[in-house]
Amino acid sequence: MITNTLSTANPADSSVHSASSDTTRRRIILSSLGAAALAVPGVGLAQAKTIPIGLVVGLTGRAGAWGGPVSDAVRLAFEQINASGGIKSKGGAHLELIVADHQSNPQMAGTQTERVIQVNNVLAVIGNVTSGATMVGSAAAEKNKTPMLSTDLADALTTRGMKYFFRLGPRISLLGGLTVEYAQATAKATGVMPKRVATIADDSTFSQDAINGVLKKLKDGPWPLQENVSFAAGQVSDFIPILQRLKLGGVDLIFLATFPADGIAIQRALRTLNYDLVGEIHVAGAPFAPDFVTNLKQDANFVSDAVGFVSELTSKNPLLAKFGDAYKAKYGKELDDQTSLAVTVVGTLYDALERSTDLSRESLTVALRATDLKQGANPYVLRDGAKFDENGDNQRTRGLIMQLRDGQQRIVYPADVATEKVVWPMPKWADRKPA
């Protein structure tokens, strides 16, 4: 297998940079497929020794905290599949990963998706890690009748009547609602009831969909909403004035949806203000990114986050643990929510490639529509499984709540999968160890 990273310096340039080298030597990757195969999309791949798959993610910019690990996880899964014999129903054809950096820029996501489809003749695209980028990238894939498998959760992605778009994770509004259910159940179980609630979210499509799921659920009570704070992602230099206002207003439960950098800044401001909360609950946000714990250390503890996966789920299944162990051995970190979802995307694609009648994009799309996988169906289906409805949403997905404890993501809700008892209320800052 040869892994490549598309240059983004010049969108008109069809050459690539090797991901395994820091040099800037260029080469055209068409030789293994042949010029004839590229003349008609999807034609000629049935006899190919490699199957090119695009991965369009943000390796730089604010999405880099997720894009880099996702790229690593997908690359490792491809390497393992190829080492085990490739796509056996297609003569052992190997998967070739074509990585493109959209630089955390939605318009670049569209450009890069077009490039990997039209220049590199990829059979499918995996993308784009951030929902704003995926809104644009998926439209480019749809226009080119190329299946896109997504790790993104924004509700709007599957409301556009697309034929070639497949989402593996849950709608983010569902996770938003789950955070309120968790808070209500925990408050009832512990007898510690918050007095006032606030929400904080950046202005991205993803975060607004997430917090709207929270707000919808909060309408049922029992807590009054003090304030719904919205801010420009990455543009707030100091969150202290916002948090000071909430503190003076008596808010002791905050729901958040932010990118890692903003989430880290908010946590530091909470510490600076000695702002004690009953609960701090994120929606698939900053806490599941490795940077959150790396930067905050002990100050990250006791924060909760609604996600689809933590590494403990895999460790209970020997088949799935094998991949998690390999990922940690190679990259020195645990699988997290985004990386596990990306690997599940690979597992779903792997299954569909084996079942497709040929290696055309249309046949692969038909196979994806017929997907019916349970967790562990192959070593890369790390999550709940996969079965798509008419909108491309995964009907098998579910969410859970993790709480950071000594830097580790521990499952605290729902009860049937919990591995740790939730700490509620959060300890006061004065009683915590310094970071």
Please sum up the structure shown:
This protein has 13 helices and 16 strands.
Descriptive account of the structure:
The chain is of the alpha/beta class and 435 residues long. 37% of the residues lie in helices and 17% in strands. The chain is built from 13 helices and 16 strands. The strands form 3 sheets. A 7-stranded mixed beta sheet has the order 2-1-4-3-5-6-7, sandwiched between helices. A 7-stranded mixed beta sheet has the order 9-8-10-11-12-15-16. Helix 3 runs parallel beside helix 4 and helix 12 packs across helix 13. It is globular, with a radius of gyration of 22 Å. Residues 7-46 have low confidence and may be disordered.
